[in-house]
Amino acid sequence: MAAYEFTVTVRTQYLPEQSDPSRSNYVFTYTITIKNTGSVGAQLISRHWVITDANNHVDEVRGLGVVGHQPLLQPGEQFEYTSGTQLATAQGSMTGEYFCVAEDGHQFETKIPEFVLSLPRTLH
Predict the structure, then answer these.
(1) Are 100 and 70 a contacting pair, CB within 8 Å?
(2) At 3, is the secondary structure helix, strand, or coil?
(3) In the chain, where the domains are located
(4) Is the distance from CB of 56 to CB of 50 less than 8 angstroms?
(5) Class of domain 6-112
(6) Which tens digit of pLDDT belongs to each residue from 36-84?
(7) N or C: where does the chain have the smaller number of CB atoms within 10 Å of the terminal CB?
(8) Contact, 24 vs 58, CB < 8 A?
(9) For the whole model, what pTM was predicted?
(10) Stretch 94-116: mean pLDDT, rounded?
(11) Number of Cβ within a 10 Å radius of residue 107
(12) What does the CA dihedral 79, 84, 85, 86 come to, rounded to 10 degrees?
């Protein structure tokens, strides 16, 4: 087991009631669970997102914490939050990383695995 390790899992959802496809506006939420799978307590300090739509338009977002929090997670603890994004296309993807600092001062990055944002499949 690595001393400094967060594991990230993601669930996504399309929000048709907030979207307007006729105006190329598609709204998605994503729920992220961050778990400290290492052996040292650590705090999530900041985030960096790369959001890409189906036209290969890329938005980069950087900021402190997540949804106003900088969670300090002891080994085995987890933090879950939900946020959202808008795309101009019906499909896109997100990836990025969290920048973290362990209680002993060691700095490390946690990769956010790429995930797809897309409309649910409909069968006719």
Answers:
(1) no
(2) coil
(3) 6-112
(4) no
(5) mainly beta
(6) 999 999 999 999 999 999 999 999 999 999 999 999 999 999 999 999 9
(7) C
(8) no
(9) 0.91
(10) 97
(11) 11
(12) 170
